[in-house]
Amino acid sequence: MIVSASAENPVRPVSESEAMETAHDPFDELTSLYLGGAPGTSPVAPVTMPESIAREEDRTTDIAVNDIGVTVALCGHLPVMAGLWVTQYAEKIAAAHGPTGLVRLEGGRCLLEILRPDAKTTDLAENRRPVDLLEHVSQLAAGRIRRWIVCVDDRDAAASVRAGAEEVVILTAADKPAVIEAYRLAKSAAARVADPDSLELGLVLVGMDDDKAENLSERLAPVTARHLDRELPVRATVRRIDVVEGSIRQVFDEASRVPAEEVVEAILEAISVAASVRSEEDEDPWSSVVPPASDGPRLRIATDDALEEIRQPIRLAPAPVLEEPAVDEREIVMSGLEEAPGEVEESIPVMEASSVTSDPDVEGEGLSDLLGLRAVDWHLPNAGGVEYACDADGRLHLLAMDGDVTGLHVAAAWIGGQQRQFAAASGLDAESVGDPCLHVITEHPPRVADLHRTGLHLHLLTKVGPGAVLVPLNDESNRTSG
């Protein structure tokens, strides 16, 4: 092919160095985010910070998400206890938009969790007849839950979007490998969708402060704009693992597991049907009534002017005062009142005693007996599923089922700040309660797969005849990351 050029617009040959400058490896650029600008690139202007990264103590109202719809969540490289970060993100959504459903199908999981349920949702979840995951999700979506998060493996993200999911968010930390993995997941999700422009992609940054999130957003924006032809905004940040306001959790067996796209379709169909039913119920039943035509006498409605003439303020006469006979104050006898104590003893906050049963068939109770520990009669309202015990050396142990891992850390943190008060109230030595041993018990090992090398003692609860035993799932060699 011969290309001609006019004198006004001459064709200038492209030098080899210029051609090399325009071809950048996106992964090299991502690597250079932590080392400076990519080779051959010019500095880019600072990127305006999204509203979701505005400097605030907690992100709740700024989360960019509609009140109705489905969000697909992908787990990138997350800090320890990765599964808890997903729950914390769902808690943020629920705090801003009301009861939120979280369906987790990634990594072999099959569970449903409702964050911040209201009374009707709680009744529906607790009093339902046994159903599989798909039917239960449909019931909740048709009832009170309008906002849903479906956490899937990256290979299922595209199918979920085709089924009707509105957006895909990638939960990631801010370290170098995590950012590169988040870019890979975003690129893979966009490539598998028929119309990439219609796909809403975003990041959820976890375990970092505002300055670090802002720095990462500014560095990542030009790279994604250059190689993905799209923005990759930060939808939300989750600064730390905290107490969940309230949740209902249901784990399903493998037989109930269905493809992610079927879950998304069931949710959207149930929401659509429920919305149409409510629309019909909200219609004015008198709007279709047509008054009959008649030439006879009709009812005359008073005008506003006529009403104004008769509209007068109503004044009520004061009630008559009944005179009561005078009573001699000396005849009044004060009795039945105990004398107030001279000093008010300072009570320990937020803790209250409770009895702990030793029935191993009851989830979360009697676990200390299975480990040969002595139960400590104590209860912390913010961590209701945690059991307290001590060993022969007097060291404190905290035990919980796999659904109460967050409460386990809440209890440990509280005791760490109240060592003397807790020791005095529980009868333990103050030095022995400062570093409690944390145990997580499960009946299904896949549920605690992401808790290895986190310092937690993991146990499998197995029933043997009428009783039960605890089988260790980790030891000193694989309990910590060291």
Task: Itemize the secondary structure elements and their pairings.
Elements: H1 16-22, H2 26-32, E1 69-75, H3 82-97, E2 100-104, E3 111-115, H4 119-126, H5 133-143, E4 147-151, H6 157-162, E5 167-172, H7 176-191, E6 200-206, H8 210-227, E7 234-238, E8 247-251, H9 260-282, H10 304-310, H11 367-370, E9 374-376, E10 387-390, E11 396-401, H12 405-417, H13 419-426, E12 437-442, E13 457-464, E14 467-472
Parallel strand pairs: 1-4, 1-5, 2-4, 5-6, 6-7, 11-12, 12-13
Antiparallel strand pairs: 2-3, 3-8, 9-10, 10-11, 13-14
Helix pairs in contact: 5-9
Explain the overall architecture.
This protein is of the alpha/beta class and 482 residues long. Among the domains are: 51-276, Rossmann fold, CATH 3.40.50; 367-472, no CATH class. The protein is 30% helix and 16% strand. The chain has 13 helices and 14 strands. It has helices spanning 16-22, 26-32, 82-97, 119-126, 133-143, 157-162, 176-191, 210-227, 260-282, 304-310, 367-370, 405-417, 419-426; strands spanning 69-75, 100-104, 111-115, 147-151, 167-172, 200-206, 234-238, 247-251, 374-376, 387-390, 396-401, 437-442, 457-464, 467-472. The strands form two sheets. Strands 7-6-5-1-4-2-3-8 form an eight-stranded mixed sheet, sandwiched between helices. A hairpin with a 2-residue loop joins strand 13 and strand 14 (467-472). Helix 5 runs parallel beside helix 9 (260-282). The longest helix has 23 residues, at 260-282. It is globular, with a radius of gyration of 32 Å.
